Amino acid sequence: MENIIFIVHLLVALAIIGLILMQQGKGAEMGASFGAGASQTLFGSGGSGNFFSRMTALLVAVFFITSFALAIIAKKQADITEDVSFSISEEVELPSLEETAPIDASDVPSVDIEAEADSSEDVPELPAE
Questions:
Q1: TM spans, by residue (predicted)?
Q2: Which of 7, 29, 56, 125 has the most CB atoms at less than 10 Å from its CB?
């Protein structure tokens, strides 16, 4: 259902963009008053303004409805995800200290302190300022 609403939403958005790009500005009506063939237009002598205006308003209403529907669906899914995550975290038990493996002294690497001191003598000193 969400995918269908999303596809309709996307198609309506593209249709709105197309309708807005096809509309003429207010300055385009000046040519009709000087005898430009307004009676030979596709949408009749009344012009295309009324048709495009109504179609744009209709598509904007559909776009608003699909936006609202997608927001409601997203909120419901967020609530479901939140409820599931809380119920999972409550069921997880952390291991106690007695259950963890003890650290053996033989596992810890040893460091030769005298070898470290000898290697520091090879480092050149910085000149004094």
A1: 51-73
A2: 56
